[in-house]
Amino acid sequence: MNDVVRLTYPEPGIAVVAMEERTYRNTFSKPLIEGLMRAFDQIGRNPTVKVVVLHGYDNYFCCGGTKEELLNIYEGKIKFTDLAFYRLLLDCEVPTISAMQGHALGGGLAFGCYADMMVIAEESLYSANFMKYGFTPGMGSTYIIPRKFGALLGNELLFSANNYHGGVLRERGVPARVVTKREVITTALALARDLADKPMVSLKLLKAHLTQSIKAKLPAIIEQELAMHEISFAQPEVRDRIETLFGG
User: Fold this and answer.
1) Cβ atoms of 14 and 21 closer than 8 Å
2) Can you list the domains of the chain with their CATH numbers?
3) Active site residue 229
4) One of 55, 165, 209, 229 is an active-site residue; which one?
5) Least packed by Cβ within 10 Å: which of 2, 116, 126, 134?
């Protein structure tokens, strides 16, 4: 795809998308977003793909917006909806699996949550860290994170903005598969093989059925999050927090 996103077909029916934005540690840089868009466009045009596995590299799955992007939102230059890639896993016609072998932070966690199945690592960190910077969550996080993690745990993630090791999330009852970091991708591929054995038509029908309620509710959620951004990003404290806390 490009230097930071690799699309491979390791086994019949299985596509693997690897995010390797090493310069910005898998934050939403322009090359990463463009690479993801191209990868999923190619997958959508490949009639043999039955399931998609998405993973990151080393200690990073996906780490959300760059500092520049957050400051641009603060200054009103962009909105998170301008980065229209966050629905790629949801809108993919075939089932998707997020193999979160590394840290998933902020929008990166939300992005991974749009997959149909998730595998996370005991040792890695997972955080809906938007409120750390003083602004309310975006990218549909206020809906998709409580839906995938459970209402109480999801709300805690959103309000606290704390980091949670995968092992802690397992103790808290997170419904995702939790394995050691070295087992995440192999576990996801084993799940993918189970799906790749099924008929294509049936997989697509079931994917459409299981995601219809999310797709129906998401537009209104996005509008509400944008309205909250108009207020929460207007606070001078937010710029200070982005400047001083980003990457910490």
Assistant:
1) no
2) 5-182 (3.90.226.10)
3) yes
4) 229
5) 2
